Amino acid sequence: MTAQENTTLKAAYAGKVAADLAENTAEQDRIRAEIETLQTQLATLETDHALLESVSAALGDTTGAVPAPRRATKKTAAVAKKPAAKKPADAVAPAKKTGAKKETKKATTVAAKKTAATTGGAKEANTGADKGPALTELIHAHLSSQSEPRTAREIAKALADANPGRNVNDNLVRTTTERLVARSRVDRVKQGSTVYYTAKADAAPAVSGPAEKATVAAS
Question: What is the pLDDT of residue 108?
Answer without folding.
Answer: 65
